[in-house]
Backbone:
């Protein structure tokens, strides 16, 4: 079972829900920190690093002796990563999305692909918890390939929990597509509701069953509840707006350890998600297409 | 000499577009023969990224020796330099007036990009 913890709005508690859910399943579990621009799961656990590797994407290298400036590569490239001038070809690796099309269309065979590092994948273990996190290089803009690399790392755990990046763009979709279930974390505020509605639209378009977790319940107003009721969206858990939750977060401690009465709530969340994914047809699961996201 | 001017439209009476990569159109004036050609820049306006690079490549392909525009970012400027194209700024009014200002020596030659990159 692969469950992604996502949200439209940032800072709603994705990492809190993802980690405490993972710590509550009671057996071997893999947690993927796919928020590669700001991975933070590891701040809350004392894990030992077991593997680390660079992740790159293939970018073109032009052999100027073989190139006749025909321009096929530049015409194909949708990202303007190549400029063919009178007597040379300029390559802008930071614009390249690594599709490899330029090398394939070059009639002279003048383009070969070389890797360009975009970040690292790191793996760490703490007891039954196995963490895989991506960390994007500073200044890098290309996120989805690193998320795919995090998800592609081999593992044999039955349960995989994904901490997705915030928002509803390509990076969020790279983290949730192909999952069995999505949990959308929100807060009961106007901003929380607005971004929840965007996230609901996105997850529906991708075609994955989902439910909602409300964090900081008791703050804000009742509009998230009203929206969920009107849309028939199940609220799986409400985490109370409690100063001790904020204190535990600020100290980098998992809630299930520092606020013990929350432990049964997360255990219930884990069993409810397992129950939801045991009958995927009830959720009306379908395959979504998101091919435009590179 | 062929001069390309970034333009809000496709005629000599169109106004100079201060954007380079996302200019609405490019108007080319051959100051020797008086010939005027133009093409729209929908590809640049709609580009997800790299609009300046594709615009610089296009100006080079048109065979221009000089470019008149408002602003230019680092990748576009590098590409224009590599293509041997001189970049001039400071033009006001219509395309026709901009070319006259260039010929009268009233425009400033850019020695580097005056805008930060928008990507990466």
Residues:
């Amino acid at each position: 079972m692969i469950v992604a913890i996502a949200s439209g709005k940032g800072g709603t508690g994705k990492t809190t829900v993802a980690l405490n859910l993972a710590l509550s399943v009671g057996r071997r579990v893999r947690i993927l920190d796919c928020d590669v621009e700001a991975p933070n799961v590891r701040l809350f656990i004392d894990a030992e690093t077991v593997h680390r590797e660079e992740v790159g994407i293939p970018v073109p290298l032009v052999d100027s002796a073989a190139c006749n400036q025909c321009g096929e590569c530049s015409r194909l490239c949708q990202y303007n990563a190549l400029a063919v001038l009178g007597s040379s070809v300029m390559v802008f690796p930071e614009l390249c999305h690594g599709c490899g099309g330029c090398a394939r269309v070059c009639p002279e065979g003048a383009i070969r692909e070389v890797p360009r590092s975009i970040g690292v994948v790191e793996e760490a273990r703490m007891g039954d918890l196995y963490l895989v996190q991506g960390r994007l290089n500073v200044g890098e803009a290309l996120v989805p390939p690193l998320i795919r690399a995090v998800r592609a790392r081999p593992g044999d755990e039955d349960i995989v929990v994904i901490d997705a990046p915030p928002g509803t763009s390509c990076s969020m979709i790279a983290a949730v597509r192909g999952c069995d279930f999505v949990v959308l974390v929100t807060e009961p505020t106007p901003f929380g509701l607005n971004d929840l509605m965007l996230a609901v639209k996105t997850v529906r378009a991708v075609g994955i069953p989902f439910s909602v977790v409300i964090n900081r319940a008791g703050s804000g107003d009742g509009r998230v509840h009203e929206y969920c009721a009107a849309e028939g969206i199940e609220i799986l858990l409400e985490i109370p707006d409690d100063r001790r939750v904020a204190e535990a977060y600020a100290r980098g401690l998992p809630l299930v350890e520092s606020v013990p009465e929350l432990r049964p709530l997360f255990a219930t969340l884990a069993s409810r998600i397992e129950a939801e994914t045991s009958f995927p047809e009830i959720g009306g699961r379908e395959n979504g297409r998101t091919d435009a996201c590179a | 000499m062929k001069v390309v001017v970034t333009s809000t439209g496709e005629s000599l009476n169109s106004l100079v577009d201060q954007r380079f990569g996302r200019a609405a159109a490019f108007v080319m004036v051959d100051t020797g023969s008086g010939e005027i050609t133009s093409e729209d820049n929908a590809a640049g306006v709609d580009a997800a990224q790299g609009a300046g690079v594709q615009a610089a490549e296009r100006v080079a392909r048109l065979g221009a020796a000089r470019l008149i525009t408002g602003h230019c970012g680092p990748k576009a400027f590098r590409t224009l330099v590599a293509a041997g194209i001189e970049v001039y700024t400071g033009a006001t009014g219509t395309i026709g007036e901009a070319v006259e200002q260039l010929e009268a020596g009233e425009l400033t030659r850019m020695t580097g990009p005056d805008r930060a990159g928008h990507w990466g």
